[in-house]
Amino acid sequence: MLTRLPERSPARLALAALIGATGVLCFAPFELFWLAPAVWAGFFALLLRAESPREGLLTGLAFGLGFFLCGVSWVYVSLSVFGGMPWWLAGPAAFLFCTVMALFPMAAGWVFKCWQPAGFWQQALLFAALLAAGDWVRSWLFTGFPWLAIGYSQTPPSPLAGFAPLLGVFGLSALVALSGALLLRWRVGATVLAVLAVSGFGLCQVAWTAPLGAPISVALIQGNIPQEMKFRPEAFVRTLNLYRELIEANPAQLTLLPETAFPVFLDQLPEDYLNALKALASRQNGDIVFGTLTGEGEAYYNSAVSLGTSPLQVYSKSHLVPYGEFIPPGFAWFMAYANIPASSFSRGPERQAPLAVAGQQVAANICYEDVFGNEIVRALPEAGILANLSNTAWFGRSLAQPQHLQIAQMRALETGRPMLRATNTGMTAIVGPDGTVRAALPPFTTGVLTGNVQAHTGATPYGRLGDWPAIALIMLMLLLGLARKR
Fold first, then answer.
1. Which of 367, 369, 375, 414 is catalytic?
2. Is residue 29 reached through a cis peptide bond, with omega within 30 degrees of 0 on the bond before it?
């Protein structure tokens, strides 16, 4: 395979960018999970052909640029189309963001060539460990952005999904990258992939958690409020009426509305409107959870509030989005060019009790927070249901929405809990504890997704240990890869 690669360095860099761009097909909405080992095999082959650490660095950078420019270019849509930033600033800002993300495979390429061992197995182990470590570091450095971690490509129906309750998404990243690297020795790679697939399929049959109590009826509201209208005062009354009509027509024990469904402070909502919602929830002896703003003095929060037969409860978002929900020090000038309402939220507490609603313990998380599996498990084992309230209208008709649903599938797999998603424009869905999407609404439509959901009890290994098993696996692979350094 190596002899067929281009001899000239510029051609190899162009091929690296093309392979990186192809990697996006492994994720939602394309979901070609079987392609992932081949993509990372191609990256590994190019690194082996690189003649110096500098060339390894450039190969990693080219691969990363192809991957992230195609995979998360929706950042430009958020900044320009909905944030109001001029194109001449939004374009370079989005490119710079993707370049920063590409620094992680770039660093992996450089370190690999600096420390490349002589043996093929050691090379494959080092390569996989470096890429998985990059995915993990991306999950916390600069507040974290683990979007498109390699492991996310292996949600159901991939047989490797069976490893998620054990190792989490970053453990899956390591397995996919290793199996891909081993494909350069076809028989070895095919054997390892077959063993992993059979083992993963077997693990998929393990019931790590058990149903708890009787199922409850749920109604997930998708308002489809255009982002350009969401914060306009003249649209406020229409928004209130729309949500009340949808709730009234779809009674359920647990009703979820999207993030900032009511884009005002809780105490600014008309009292008679809140009483009407409470009465609608009481029809089923249930509760409504909706997104709104809450405040304490000068601090204000992006919150989920419950209303109904249970006492009023509040969950406030803890992991905020840089530039979208808080302004990093020294970047106020940058935000002056963007029109992003309420971009200076305060952080909610790291640990918050699940919402006791509809007779269940529901762990709420808001939008971007479900990207962080080690934070989602904080609510376990008490919570029996996960619930995500999102508004991804900021990203338009892009890859962001199906990618976000795939992330929610991974959280359900890791925890053995059903995940409910109520979004403004999509993807509103019910995800089973096995990571499969049980039902979903078409994006960019107004509607209500109804169904029955059963809470689960118990804990998966990931639910108990978080990312530590994956970190241990990555460290072991790293040590074995460097055991015989050239």
1. 367
2. yes
